[in-house]
Write a structure and sequence with these properties.
The chain has an 8-stranded parallel barrel with strand order 1-2-3-4-5-6-7-8, surrounded by 8 helices. Helix content is about 45%, strand content about 15%. It contains 12 helices and 8 strands.
Length: about 260
Amino acid sequence: MTTSAQPSTSVAAEDAEDVGPAVLSKFSQPGPSIWLAGDPEDLKDWLPLGAAGVVTNTVVLNDMVKKYGQVTEVVQRYLDITDKQVVVEIDGHSTDELLDTGEVFTKMSDQVVLKIPCTVHGLGAFRELSKADVETMCTTVFTLSQAAVVANAGATHILPFCEPYRDVGGDPTKLVRECRTMFEEWAQRPYITAALVRSVDTAYRALRDRADGIIIFWPIFEEMMQNKLTDEWNHTFLDNWNEMYDAGLMEGVPVVRDH
């Protein structure tokens, strides 16, 4: 993917080839993407409920190989539970090593997206992979200047890290906002996908600040659905629903009462 400073506030069908996927997605996607992280056995029940796909990092992969075996076997477990994208984080000591390692996983499935750390040798990998139209995520992004450099190198997703700033009393989504401002007029702009989102509050902030997506562990996904007022009103509505059933006024409607 090649970035461009060309402004683009609207996209006609005939101009679609001139803009990047992040710009096009706002015309075809219902909203920000929610990516899930965690054990494949936990994720298989949550992925069908609106998640964009799976995202791994090397910390998670290191935990999973201790449980399931070789890293390729772990990635295959993720592929086996979903037809959505599976983001595999790779690492290495040179551009060539990153490219060779990435090829191992992209050959496993066209569902695989590569996640590469924000390093100088990562830039070469982003450039070569963008030429081959391989989708990539750039992780460990902590500054706006880093985001600009890796975007120009061809990374498809920029992953501003959030929670580490919160850990030191900073604004966890400041970089998300800065990236939105910087990339706003880029026709070929990357996705801005908030990473290391470890709380519902940080998820809220990232979504409020117009991240294109967030990466969360599945318990946060579950917790995002919880709200005291929602619980109270759901209880009220269900009581009234049951009251109609008990009065015999739900004929022809399949109702199963909890026992």
